[in-house]
């Protein structure tokens, strides 16, 4: 078996030691006589495991005691709805429209209440973001929602936006990749399938006092308060295996030196790839350098002519033989995209750059 360098945007590569440990523990967790998948979520073993995973997540991410943690399902996409349902309280919300996932969050919020755009980068094709000082955040807004890392266009905030409204952030593609100020946010959420583990688990971190009454008729599964009030935050069966794998990933992260060490590695990986792209005279990344993502690096060949597209198809077709996988750009933008989450080591980035250099030499 040969594991490839997997540049998937998500579900994404997991650290090999995490998978090896999961395999070793697959049939029996501890001395329980069963797999973690076969345990009741209310069993003493699983409740202890879940508490321990939350403790490790709090420690790794720096989540303060002022904030509660929920392990939910439904992906970040369900949070696009749960946030307005539980935070609007009849008011309006401001959204920073800085990419595809922000658009999805806005569409969903509009089904529930009034939304205004604090900033909109659609006109520049999501390649940069206006300075926060130029945003217009509705003074009455219940919250400002933004996407610290837009996974598709590869646009990342490198600072928390300084606005007066309570902040809500979609951390799906950046959680645990760098230090993050949870205390400065009323609510954050992230699907696990990029930096935390397999799909199925959504982590929500919230300050309880940011919640407002959900509209009458709201199902309890859509009400954060119902989840928070349930024993151990489990209103129903959580994705137990994904919670377990998050725990293994957090153990691995601690062995790697934690989030601060990971942030340095992520910065070095992204810097190496952007430096190669910019200096290549062959590939290009369209994003304003001040807003480039360290997690998702889209790149193209040329300027979209038919022969450029043929070259990109050839580039992607040759990846397999080079042991590189999932470099196709998102279907909405085309080209290529390399996702460099925590589990991708510098060696994988170096292998990609070698292949890119070779391809440019042969086809440039
Ligand atoms: N937000 C961001 C930033 C994402 O990258 C994604 C998934 N790629 C989503 C939301 C949607 O996540 P899910 O499929 O878990 O709903």
General description of the model:
The chain has 364 residues and is of the alpha/beta class. Helices cover 35% and strands 15% of the residues. The chain is built from nine helices and 14 strands. The strands form four sheets. It has a seven-stranded mixed beta sheet with strand order 2-10-9-8-5-3-4, with helices on one face. Strands 11-12-14 form a three-stranded antiparallel beta sheet. A two-stranded parallel sheet has the order 1-13. A hairpin with a 4-residue loop joins strand 6 (149-150) and strand 7. Helix 1 (16-24) packs across helix 6 (240-255). The longest helix is centred in the C-terminal third of the chain and has 23 residues, at 258-280. The protein is globular. It starts with a strand and ends with a helix. It binds 4'-deoxy-4'-aminopyridoxal-5'-phosphate. 4'-deoxy-4'-aminopyridoxal-5'-phosphate (PMP) binds at residues 10, 75-77, 101, 147, 151, 170, 172-173, 191.
Task: Please outline the helices and strands.
Layout: E1 5-6, H1 16-24, H2 44-61, E2 68-72, H3 75-87, E3 92-97, H4 100-110, E4 114-120, E5 144-146, E6 149-150, E7 155-156, E8 167-170, E9 187-191, E10 202-206, H5 224-229, H6 240-255, H7 258-280, E11 283-284, E12 296-301, H8 306-319, E13 324-325, E14 336-339, H9 346-363
Parallel strand pairs: 1-13, 3-4, 3-5, 5-8, 8-9
Antiparallel strand pairs: 2-10, 6-7, 9-10, 11-12, 12-14
Helix pairs in contact: 1-6, 2-6, 3-4, 7-9
The structure holds 4'-deoxy-4'-aminopyridoxal-5'-phosphate.
